[in-house]
Amino acid sequence: MGLLKQDLVLWLLGVLFLSNLLLCRADVHYYDFFVRETNFTSLCNTTKSMLVVNDSYPGPEIRVHRQDTVYVNVHNQGNYGLTIHWHGVKQPRNPWSDGPEFVTQCPIQPGTNFTYEVILSDEIGTLWWHAHSDWTRGSVHGAFVILPAENETYPFPTPDADQTIILQSWYNRDYKELIDEATSNGTAVAPADAYAINGHLGDTYACANETLFRMQVDYQKTYLLRIINAAMNEQKFFAIANHRLTVVAQDASYVQIFTNDYIMISPGQTMDVLVCANQNMGQYYMATRPFSDSAAPPRNNITRGVLQYTNSVGGLNASLVTLPAMTDLDAAANFTRRIKNSNVTQNPPMKVPMDIDRRVYVAIATNTLPCDNCPIQPTRLAASLNNVSFDFPQIDVLQAYYNRSISGVFTEDFPLQPPVFYNFTGDDLTGLNRNADLGTKAVVLNYGEAVEIVLQTTQLGAGGSHPMHLHGFSFYWVGTGSGNFNNVTDPSSYNLVDPPLINTVHVPARGWVAVRFFATNPGVWFMHCHFERHSSWGMDTVFIVKNGTTVDTSILPPPASGMPRCSGT
Ligand code: C2O
Ligand code: CU
């Protein structure tokens, strides 16, 4: 009897195991996003109305497994048009649901809705979603958590729990008002008034009647922090008092595990970090402050939250949290250079292009353009890639590309190198012409080409570093150096062995980075600086990847229910 029972149990286990294997297919999830104005109270008890999703700031978290598909029905109940982007989701063959306004779609008008089909492939870990129209992403954003598939494990001991940490900018004024005013004046939006962690400003500000973000932890447990830099224009340092941070992933791809006292994360980037609650039971500050190497720096404010052990007695531990100084270039570089790709089986197989078909060398600059209607001065601030300042069209580039009948929306002549070579990283560029050309220019790539993009910062304008982000791909970050890129000697310093696979790369001030990828995702893909200030000034361009020769290597048809209408079409 005993034996029989055991057999039965084994048999049942076998059946369960098999059916589990068979059931390991991708799931489909449905979300509804209601975008509307909601009142929030903040510094000094001021109440302001802010455009958010489902009345929450940050917005709702999407939580799925690897390779799932997600439908998000976005109902615009706000006062102006907007779009949503799934930052870091590659959306194979599906630019229709990528989101950047006037690049892959026109805005979802107030009172209407649009359903995005978000197709996951090899992404694993943490990404995020945000509005991709004017400055609306300041309040319209949230986490996109991608758990291992059901038959998959983490490449490290499974954490006891996870916690999303969203680093944000806080403006007392409305984002749309701010950018509209700055654009019509030709000036810069003022720096953020404060910074938030998961919507909380914390206890460091004047009349801080704010609540602190508190993360509850149990003694001896390990937590996976999913850290997202959703700030508008600020790179960030982040640290927790007395607790070291173990970095395990960036931009939804695992990295070689390393431990540090702090992280440095650029806008757009996401980092998965393990923290072990192994200190004396108590309450510890976590804190964030900007890192900046720009001549136009953000406010040097620290925002704090609390890591709080369950059953800890007494008040907030006086133990201070130490962060690098805001201008500590070495602290930023020393952290960033430790990030390396991990060859764990859970990562996408390493496919670093070795022989390059297409090279693009891009000089990044801030500029000024003549402005007839600007009330303050006859020029306006602008920014450019290879001296082209991106001019957002009225009809999206994707529609114009797909329906060849629409012309005059964009041209295919984005320069593959800077039109003028000067000492890009030199100190005295005051004699140089700071003008740029306005244009809507794309780079057209053949399907499958091996592409290398070298991004070069210049000291033209304010100088400083830039977080450059490409839609539709993760690229291998193969090289970084200081000064002007030398295409003869610098490639010998490339890391072609374990380069990180990321979607947003920190291009250092007075320096360059090289990234590589295979153009195997047909579509229309935006590339831009993830400082909103720079992107809205024109520091953007478009990569078009042509169809391959088969249906499976071609752009999917547009959604049957149609795309949001562009005004005038
Ligand atoms: Cu995170 Cu084009 O965006
Ligand atoms: Cu920038």
UniProtKB/TrEMBL annotation:
It comes from Theobroma cacao. The keyword Oxidoreductase applies. Coiled coil: none annotated. SUPFAM superfamilies: Cupredoxins. Its cofactor is Cu cation. This is Laccase. Belongs to the multicopper oxidase family. One of its GO terms (molecular function) is copper ion binding. It is an enzyme of class 1 (oxidoreductase).
